[in-house]
Amino acid sequence: GQNIDQPTEMTATEGAIVQINCTYQTSGFNGLFWYQQHAGEAPTFLSYNVLDGLEEKGRFSSFLSRSKGYSYLLLKELQMKDSASYLCAVSPMTGGYNKLIFGAGTRLAVHP
Amino acid sequence: ETGVTQTPRHLVMGMTNKKSLKCEQHLGHNAMYWYKQSAKKPLELMFVYSLEERVENNSVPSRFSPECPNSSHLFLHLHTLQPEDSALYLCASSQVVSSSGNTIYFGEGSWLTVV
Q: Are A102 and B43 in contact (CB under 8 A)?
């Protein structure tokens, strides 16, 4: 079957670092995506990993271990505007359209 | 502004009504998607159109009927819905590519309430 797990909720302090974990079991694997979704808004693309290792993009970094079926999203120097849901999604197909399988999302609350 | 526009943003309809959700993408993509987002549940893929052909229909009840007249427009026709169909309906688009990394871009969504 297809399964993607991530924590339901997390809290963190402004200026701190937070790591959001995601584990997956899917019938195929062609990359893992992270999206950010503020309440009432569209999910917006944050990062994409298809090879093992760390991808850094400003304050956000994403890590992938394919052998462990594991990824994390690292947010540094947290700001209040980072309060949002973070969605982990796996692409099981190679090429063509993108049939993403999503986790339920992690709701992050950043407090002063 | 994500390049994917959905209308209406909010819709309240009775169980006997017929309505449609509209999506338009300005990104030059050739695949379009409908997702359903319910509270505390993962996004559920409903339909995919690739190169204007329906390629995915994930056991969605027939009271939901998609239409893709061209690569830039996507509709979701709704009729005789149930209260449990109340949710956020997200449209998305992407390129159809031969390699990996074809990112999906989402619209703001249409909030549907069935009364």
A: yes
**Among A6, A17, A3, A2, residue whose Cα is nearest residue A71:** A6
Give B65-103 pLDDT, tens digit per residue: 999 999 999 999 999 999 999 999 999 999 887 665 678
Tokens 């986790």, residue located: A103
Instruction: Give every CB contact of residue B85 below 8 A, 6+ residues apart in sequence.
Output: B63, B64, B78, B112, B114
* A70-91 per-position pLDDT tens digit: 999 999 999 999 999 999 999 9
Q: Which residue of chain A is at minimal alpha-carbon distance from B32?
A: A97
| Interface with B, mutate which of A47, A97, A106 (most B CBs under 10 A) | A97
- Measured between beta carbons, the chain B residues lying within 8 angstroms of A41 are 108
Q: Is B72:B51 a contact under the CB 8 Å cutoff?
A: no
Q: What is the pLDDT of residues B60-69, one digit of tens each?
A: 999 999 999 9
